[in-house]
User: What shape does this take?
Amino acid sequence: MSRIYCDLECLRYHTPGHPDAPERVASAAERLKRSGRALLPPDYTATEADAALAHDPGHLSSVRDGLYCDEDTPHYDGIELFAMLSASCAVSAAMSAAAGEPGFSLMRPPGHHAGRRRAAGFCYLNNLAIAVSVLGRARPSLRAAILDIDAHHGDGTQDIMLGRPDVLFVSLHQSPLYPGTGLRSEGNCLNFPLPPGTGEAAYLAALEKGLSSITAFKPDVLAVSAGFDAFRADPIAQLRLEKTSFRRIGGLIAGAGLKRFGVLEGGYAPDLPVLVENFLETFL
Ligand SMILES: [Zn+2]
Assistant: This one.
């Protein structure tokens, strides 16, 4: 069994023309439902104390009051509530994974560019970092691996997790590309920068290397920042994965045999629903 979490309340903010359009989640949710998947509301409500496990104390109020400054990441009334709802689904997926059922959070806003005290790149709170931290609070000996397959470097996740002996962070991303970080590995953060135009074979080879480091780390749980913007037709990145590549990626990750969950990050092509479906077919 597996569990997919989604709350369509997350469709209720948008800026015309912004890449993170509500239709992304709406169309993917529609496709999954049509193929017979149940989409569950979060069964955990993330709290301010949960957010404070990953972020500096003033960060949530800075999101609420729009005190941060990032032109890609507009301020909306109530955005902190949407961000907390996205975090709630991520924690729900993480708890499902810990209980032995792979989980996935199909939500927005995404999270992997949100750092300790920074909202950026369409991200306000780092959903995945919060989810991993909530699991770690319940079980202090927990070892977690984080795999980021979004086409952009997970700079926010690295900011939060760098130097933690209980966490291994692995990111595959296009370089050069926003945010311009992740050019080399640092401590517990293994970065695989890939040149624009990288296709499936080279991508999967890097993924296998990353997964072998993850397996060697012997984590209790594997958390995946699942971005789909490495797809060849994505409008804001230039990697060259095919639709079917995401089935292979999900299969390779599942093949590691770890307790696992994923959260939606980026992915802006109109094909997002089929990419998500292909990934989940093998990942879950
Ligand atoms: Zn991205």
Remarks:
- The mean pLDDT is 98.
- Residues 79-98 form the longest helix (20 residues).
- The beta strands are 3-5, 39-40, 103-105, 144-148, 167-174, 189-194, 221-226, 260-264.
- The CA atoms of residues 162 and 186 lie 8 Å apart.
